[in-house]
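I have been asked to look over a protein record a colleague put together. Alongside the sequence sits a line of tokens, each denoting a local backbone shape. Please read both lines and tell me whether the tokens look consistent with the sequence. Take the sequence as given and treat only the tokens as open to question. I have pasted the whole thing underneath without changing anything:
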Amino acid sequence: MTAPLPALPAKIHPLVRAFLDTREAVEETLIRFGSPTHLVFPQVYAENLKRFRAVLDRSGTRYRICYAHKVNQSRAFVRTAEHAGIAIDVASAHELTSAIGAGFGPMRIEVTGPKGEAFLRDLIDCGVTINVDNLWELRRITELAGDRARVPVLLRVSGFDETSVSRFGVPLVHMDRAFDLLSANRRAIAFLGFAFHIDSGDPAERVRAIDACLALVERAYEHGLGPSVLNIGGGFRQVFTADADRFDGYVRALRESLLGRGEPMSWSNNTFGYHVDDGAVHGIPVFHKYANTVPATRMLDDLLGAPLQRHGGRTVAQVAGDNMLDIWLEPGKALVDHAGVTVARVEFVKELADGTMLVNLDLSRDQVTPADQEVMIDPLVLPSIAHTPSSAPGPAAPGRDGTAAGDGVTPLRGAADTMPTPRPAPESGSVGVYFAGRLCLERDLITNHKVWLPERPRQGDLVVFPNTAAYHMDLSAASASMHPLPAKLAVVHRTGSFQVYRDVDYEPLIPVGLPPPRRTPPRGPRRRPLPRRPSGAP
């Protein structure tokens, strides 16, 4: 039996798969709006949010979900978040404008990241919650507040035991200075509590950070402060692969190829962060995030249920509830997981002098992945139906809800509305290829690892890169050679058909199946955390 070729099958949400399977709808979208294009799926976002809420509801804690806007500039996602009643985390003046324009009031806006003085002045004027990054920010807020209403503030903390040094947050060793500032400026600052962000998949690091913040809550009471919020940040991972065993098999074959065994699998001897020494491959590759198989909701569930030794083995959720602390969190990747894809056309296929097969797309590498990462899931190739005159789609028909094509929305035909169009026979046989971008740069390889396809692609075929909504679409999209940025479109399934909107024009209807916004009940008397018992005490 012949061993299967190395493959990296992508996990794809059923709604996204259904749209891609409606080939005529995909073709019509690219004909109308151009290629390449980013497609976002607000209904998948809403489903992810529903799962997050379910975990938090089961835990019994009071909570606030703040969507991390920086993960994607999509207005459709921001409007979906606002309509669902959650809060938003913004990190720039433009993101703040975006949030306000989408309907968020100041009570539902938190601002994170480093901030300059002009931005701080605007935030104080707006009355939003400021997640303070450093002591300079905290001091400047006290000076700028003046006679305004008290400025709501969280204090971001860093420097936890056994955690990598971070450029963000106030180090634990400087907390005495922070407490002095907070205590001396109670009339200017409404101190809400502590925050942290751990950019790691290690659950033990998060538990240590939570325990350290709970100790800070105890110290805050000693300074006459009354914190009520523990913000555990974001960093909840995505699941990219649909088959962990095949992912592991591909990585094994790749490592073997780096040692000169078997077929070459990397462009220009790219090692992806590995280093080869003494006949072995060492190190952590740049694509390590793609190996994750733990859903974000399970990460959150495990974190809330983690026992805290310093608190008698009670769980994180129990300690937070007992002490009337609201859990805030800032998911970004987890809410847009599987809620976006990027589609581009094949411009041509060429064979290089050494037999390498290159598939050129009308797309650039950094429009689907940050430059220092590698997309370790296989793109999907959709054979074009536009190779014969009869296959060209006609004008889009009105949707069943009466919406006409135009004004930002295109109702699309379903698969049953048109007969499949035959295409010329493909060149048979599997083929290993590299996908190349459109820039005149050697480094513009969209995949530096070899991708095996069942057949050689052709000019005009569509290539779909799954799960690109989290940072991949916007973090470093290139405009070199004056190429315009890809269009961003929102795809929804309504009244039995798919409809495509310009992202800026999308408006959510009442989300089916989403619970109403969680209302925080009135507070009772606050229970102070029990002081840590001295060593050796009975």
